[in-house]
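ESCALATION

Customer reports they have been waiting on this structure for their group meeting. Please prioritize. Original submission:
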Amino acid sequence: MKKRYFLQASAAMVGAAWLSQYFTGKSKVMATAKNKFEITKTDKEWRNILTPEQFRVLRQHGTERAGTSPLDKQYGKGTYACAACNLPLFTSNTKFNSGTGWPSFYAPINGAIATTVDKSFLMTRVEVHCRRCGGHLGHVFDDGPAPTGKRYCMNGVAMKFLEG
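Update from on-call: job pushed to the front of the queue and completed.
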């Protein structure tokens, strides 16, 4: 009888340890990238230049509510830049309507983004962040249109649209 309880308890501990990686609620971008970004600031400095919602998304890996960003329906000619450091990230030529409620692109500007594995909320996803400041932008999925088959699903609040 004691052996059965020991085995059950051991299995429960192993299972809990394995599942804990999915319940952290945060991606591991900062730890993985080891803060080796061209632009680094303290939280206080970021809070001084970002809105509270931009700070939550870009610096705390939050997600804006679907359908709330004006950039989702923005289809003018121009460039989408990081709201934190102004690095150009995507062009309007690669934007498409994914129907998800978030601005979506099939390709970034070369060298503009970096990706890391995000294991949160019982999912494994690929997180997209600004390669210059490390700001969380969104996630990339393998269900986009040709020519890449990728869908870069971005938080609109993490970007700004530069016309032209």
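Sent to customer with the following note: The first helix runs from residue 2 to 20.
Escalation resolved.
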